[in-house]
G-D-S-L family lipolytic protein
Amino acid sequence: MIAALALAAALAAAPAPTSPGPRIVIASDSTAANYTADRYPQMGWGMVLKCSLDSGVQVVNLARGGRSTKTFIEEGLWDQLVAQLQPGDTVLIQFGHNDADTKKIERHTDPNGVYDVNLRRFVADVRKAKATPVLVTPIARWMWENGEPKDAHGPYAATIHRVAQDLKVPLVDLDGDMLTALKARGPLASQRLYLQYQPYDHVARYPDGISDDTHINEQGARLGAALVATRLAGLKLPISRRVHPASVAGQPRLGGPTCP
């Protein structure tokens, strides 16, 4: 059983083989990453982005949990990604959650220092490979203050906007769009998008309950993917005509990353 789970995890994390069709490559953290079935209901938005794409578009999800721009570089993950880029690829770059972490200091970056430098490096490397970089602000946390969703990524999101403007990089404002979606749903309904469960809600995975304002469940992942796709479709990139965003109004619960 352990060997089977290890194999499944390896397959989920492995890059897809070279394909002549259009590809979307994701560089990110746990909020976009792939997860095996035993981790359900936790899912990353990268797992269901395919549901908003033509069937011929391949998603290569290289997101890894716990990574910041700094550790993604230090662990060699960025070099591995660049090595397999193909001309014409679209690369979605979303970091910030772990760059803002001051408890696990090895992840932390200054939003106006190393974080800025790293984002500019990512853009330059992708362009050198004749691929298209797209900067993505980190998906909003489930945090509320005075009846309003609270922005948890201010300086990091601001840096992404600045770098995108400076370098003329397409931008997906997932943070801003998710904050808008949370406000529209309100605190109670939007809570159902995250790993927020009482002990009786999800006995199999969280017998003691869980209160996680960062990581998203299946519905959160589907909403996040639909928001990303909506922005991609409007960017007038070569990939944009292959994007057909799923509805952001309501997300089905299918028990895994299958498409409706």
In short: The beta strands are 23-27, 58-61, 90-93, 132-136, 144-145, 148-149, 171-172, 194-197, 210-216. The chain has one domain: 22-242. The first helix runs from residue 2 to 13. The longest strand covers residues 210-216.
